Amino acid sequence: MKIRALLAILIGLSLPSLGQAPDQKEDALSVNPARDLFDLATLNYNDAKKGKDPQKVERDYRIAAKKFDQFLRTFPRDKKAIEAWYFLGMSYREIGEQKASRACFQSAATNWKEGKFVEASALFLASDDYKAEKWGDAAKWFQIVSDTTENKEIKQQSLYRRFLCFYKLEDKAGMLLSLKAVIADENSPYSETARLALARLYRDSQSAKQAHELFVILSKSKDPQIRAEASFQAALTAQTLGDKKLTKIWFRNSLSEEQSKGVKGKTQLVLMSLHYKDRQWQDVIDVFRIGNFELEKQSELQRLIMVAKSYDALGKEEEVRKLYEQIATLSPGSTSSFEATYHLLIRDHKKSANNFLKNAESFLRDYATKRAKDPKVHSIRLLLGEGYYAAKDYEKAISQYRLLDLSLVDDSNALGVRYHVAKSQLFLKNEKGALAAIAAFIAEFPKAKQSTQLRLDRAEL
Fold first, then answer.
1. Which residues contact 48 (CB under 8 A, 6 or more apart)?
2. What is the pTM of this model?
3. CA 369 vs CA 124, 174, 366, 381, 412: distances in Å
4. Tell me, what's the pLDDT at 461?
5. Host H or E run for residue 154
6. Rounded to an integer, what is the distance from CA 86 to the centroid of its chain?
7. What's the 3-state SS for 50-74?
C-alpha cells in the first residue's frame, strides 16, 4: 500500500471530517476566549477546505494558520493544543510551507504520547522522510504511528515500513527487532514476507540454526516462490549445520518445487554429489532420473560422469556405454570427452569389439599429440599395437610399438612388447629389423623363455 493511501485511511477513519462544525458543547453565553479563538481558526480552516476560488482558499488557510498560531502562543496548555498543532501543520502544508508544516507535526508527535492527532502527525512526517530517503527519521516516525494507532492495517504497514527503513540503512540490529515486531502479529499480511527476510538475515549473519528453523516453517507456504526458496535454503542451512541426512531430504524436497530450470539443475547436481561422495550409487541414479535441467556444459559433464560411474559401480554396462558416448560428444576435445572416449575404448577392447582398432586410431589422432605424455594415450597405443599383432597386421603393429613410451605403461608390458616387435619383424621377413629386435630382447630379458625361441629364430635367418 502506498503512503498516500495509508494517509487517506488514517484521515478518513481517525480524524473529524474536514467539513464538521466546531464543537458547540459549551453554553453560547459563557465566555471562553480559548475556545472562541480555536473555533474561529477551525471555521477558517473548514472554509478553505470547501472553497473553490484558489485565491480565497489560500487566504483562508493563511488566516486559519494565523489563528491557530495565535491560539498556541496564548493558550499553549489548552486541551485543544494538540489539535491546533495538527491543523496548523495542515494549514501550512496546504499553502506550501513544508518546513513550517513539519515543525508543527513534530510538536504534535513528540509532545504527546497518544491519540489520533499524534498518529496522523507522525504519519505525515514518516511519509515525507520515507520519500526523501531519510530512513532513520522515517523509522522513528513509523514507530510512533504503530504505537498510537488503533487501526490494525495502519499498524501492520507502519511496522513493516519501519523494517524497510532499517533495511535501507543496512542496520542489522534494527532489522532484527523490526522484523520480530512484524512477525509477532500472525494476522499481518506482511508476516510471511518478514519471516523470509528474517531467515535471510539469520543466514547472512551465519546464524544457520535460526535460519534453518524459519526456512522449514516457510517451506509450508502457500506461495510457490517462497516455498521453493525456503526448501532450497533449508537444504543449504542443513548442510552448513553438518546434517547430511537433512541436507539430502531438503534438496530432494526442493527438486519437487516450482523452481527455474537453472536452479533445479544446480540442486540436482548438488544432491547427486552428496550421494556420490557417500557411495550411494542407486541414489545418484534415482536423482539423475528426476529430469534433465539447465546446466552449464562443465556442470552437465560432471552430472553425466557421476551417474556413469554409479552405473559402472552397479555393473550396468549398457547404461555406462550410453552415458560415456553422450559425454564424449557433449564437449569434443575436452578432458571429459577424452576420459569418456578412453573408457569406451577400454570396454570395447574387453569385449573384443570389431570397431576397436578403428576407434583407437581415431582416439590417437585426436589426442596423441596434445597429450603426448598421458599414460592413457600410451595405454590405448599398447592395446592398438596388440590388436594389430593379433590381426597379423605386423607393419601397423610395429608402427604403434615404435611410438609407445613404455615408461608410461605398466612395467610388466615391456617383455611382451619387445617380443612382439621381434616376431613381427620375423613375420615380415625383415632380416635387419628382426636381428636388431632379437638382440635388444635378449639383452633386456636374457633369462626369459622367449629368448630361447628367438635364438632359434635368429639361427634360421
1. 57, 58, 60, 61, 64, 91, 94
2. 0.70
3. 77, 63, 8, 13, 25
4. 75
5. helix 152-169
6. 48
7. HCCCHHHHHHHHHHHHHHHHHHHHH
The per-residue pLDDT for 258 is: 80
Asked if 424 and 389 count as a contact pair (C-beta separation under 8 A), the reply is yes
Q: What topology does CATH give the domain 1-20+32-189? A: 1.25.40
Distance CA 221, CA 196 (A): 10
| Residue ranges of the chain with per-residue pLDDT less than 70 | 1-30, 260-261
Separation of alpha carbons 191 and 178, rounded Å:
11
- CA-based end-to-end distance of the chain: 103
| DSSP-derived secondary structure for 22-56 | PP--S-TTS--HHHHHHHHHHHHHHHHHH---HHH
Return the C-alpha cell found at 72.
498556541
Nearest CA-CA partner of 154 in 123, 185, 114: 123
pLDDT of residue 300: 92
C-alpha cell at 170: 543496512
Sequence letter at residue 23: D
DSSP states of 217-246: HHTT-SSHHHHHHHHHHHHHHHHHTT-HHH
For the segment 268-295, what is each residue's pLDDT rounded down to a tens digit?
999 999 999 999 999 999 999 999 988 9
SS3 91: helix
Which residues are within 8 A (CB) of 73 and not within 5 positions of it... i.e. 6 or more apart?
none
> How many residues appear in the chain?
461
In terms of Cβ atoms closer than 10 Å to its own Cβ (0-12, 13-18, 19+), residue 109 is: buried
**Cα of 421 vs its chain's centroid, Å:** 60
> Which residues contact residue 307 at a Cβ distance below 8 angstroms, ignoring those fewer than 6 apart?
272, 284, 285, 288, 323
> What are the C-alpha distances in Å from 306 to residues 33, 272, 274, 367?
90, 8, 11, 23
Helices 297-313/317-330 angle, 10° precision = 160
368's CB contacts (< 8 A; 6+ apart) are: 377, 381, 403
Q: 308, exposed or middle or buried, with CB in 10 Å at 0-12, 13-18, 19+?
A: buried
Longest Cα–Cα distance of the chain, Å, equals 152
Domain parsing of the chain, residue ranges: 1-20+32-189
Torsion of CA 21, 23, 28, 32, to 10 degrees: -120
Alpha-carbon distance of 290 to 23, in angstroms, equals 74
CB 172 within 8 A of CB 146: no
d(CA 163, CA 125): 17
Describe the crossing of helices 375-390 and 413-427 by its angle, rounded to 10 degrees: 40
